[in-house]
Amino acid sequence: MSHTASMEEFEALLNESLEIDTPQEGSVVKGKVIAIEAGQAIIDVGYKMEGRVELKEFANPGEAPQIAVGDEVEVYLDRVENARGEAVISREKARREEAWDRLEAAYAKEERVEGAIFGRVKGGFTVDLGGAVAFLPGSQVDVRPVRDAGPLMGLKQPFQILKMDRRRGNIVVSRRAILEESRAEQRAEVIANLSEGQVVEGVVKNITEYGAFVDLGGVDGLLHVTDMAWRRVNHPSEILSIGETVKVQVVKINKDTHRISLGMKQLQSDPWDSVESKFPLGSVHTGRVTNITDYGAFVELEPGVEGLVHVSEMSWTKKNVHPGKIVSTSQEVDVMVLEIDPAKRRVSLGLKQTMRNPWEVFAETHPVGTVIEGEVKNITEFGLFIGLDNDIDGMVHLSDLSWDQRGEDAIQSYRKGDMVKAAVTEVDTDKERISLSIKALDADTFSDAVDGVKRGSVVTVTVTAIEDGGIEVEYNGMKSFIRRSDLARDRADQRPERFQVGDHVDVRVTNVDSKTRKLGVSIKAREIAEEKEAVEQYGSSDSGASLGDILGAALKGDN
Questions:
Q1: What is the model's pLDDT at position 20?
Q2: Where would I find the S1 motif domain in this sequence (predicted)?
Q3: Three-state secondary-structure class, residue 169
Q4: Class of domain 194-267
């Protein structure tokens, strides 16, 4: 019994000894290099166990292995024994475990870690953080895109851990965060030594469409395109080039955002200070067209001073055309100064004022009555527009087309492009209007015919036609119509058939209408007027005497 008990106690002590002394698989143990052969280091990890590790596992990326016989190293124990009776160990896994412990502590404290970029992968680079491999996205390499990352490969430098997951073995780091932090400190120091209005030198680092970034010694300032020169600058590359050293003035500093606005034109005299003396109102100057818009064109009078020629001041005759059809960019033109507003830095210019008003020229060279010839440019419901010299038009109103026809009828005989002659009847230079007349070229037959004839006059007409409703008569070539009711005072005599073509008849003029060119005549009105005149001279309508009696007495008196 005692023998059996002692064996059990020995076995228990042996098992306890093995549990205490034998290292656990999956842990990091210390070992000693006892030999180096065939590119491998043979390491004694104690407990009568040896294992082999490839020499490359002892090398940092881009460096030669640093290991020698007798060195003590930590390795990771994968298995206590393999098929050859050796321990399966790994220096790389030991470094990784050690690195993860160290990196997790640094990540928790938001501390920087040291590493080296050793490879390129899709979307970025791989970084060795002393045993653990991290991913460096391309956007986190530098504050600006990096075209060539060659100089950064294998270089030990600090990184900031952005994210890590030990279970998945993922670590994401940033070099940009380190640079931005360092840059912010540097910017704060440089900005603290700058003041608004200070003149400094800098180097042009980058050029964009809206300006240029100038390095002031660790901090960039923006030189906006509008602050480069007093004149209009279409693109910063007209004035600056990358790498050029320039002298600039600090225009504004934003302490919160660390943004610095710079200016170059502030170091030059402002040309607007002398605009009023150099360009007095009404003076004419030669300038260069710098920009064309829908509402006009900008003309540079001198570097830094531009004026606007509004579209309404560009041409006397071209009213509704785009300014680009009158002038072109870079063209030199003569302009007149119309208005100056130094406070708003505006100059109003006129292009047409440098040329004579074509309506004034026409009035001087074509007095009223002058006969002109021109092309029918347009036909409207109220008349014809005739093209004249210097791109101006004259208008022939419907009422000035013909003496004999209605305007609506007369205009039908004209077509666009016809060459016509007309007489100048009026020139209004203020309203820019020229009135013409085609009918003025011919004599006014109506006026000639009725010259001296007034309402109430008695004239002799010739019967030219007999109709049911009356008779047509003619006076000095002017046709007129006497209605049946106007053929006689007595209704019984109001018969057209009692007249014959060629008869001469005395009639009384009832109307002379120059506008409608009509002469109104009546036989009845003449007879009534004669009766009235006889009564006034020879009798009274109240005496009871008949008209025959009165006329008979009048005839005896004449005898």
A1: 46
A2: 26-92, 110-176, 197-265, 282-352, 369-439, 456-524
A3: coil
A4: mainly beta
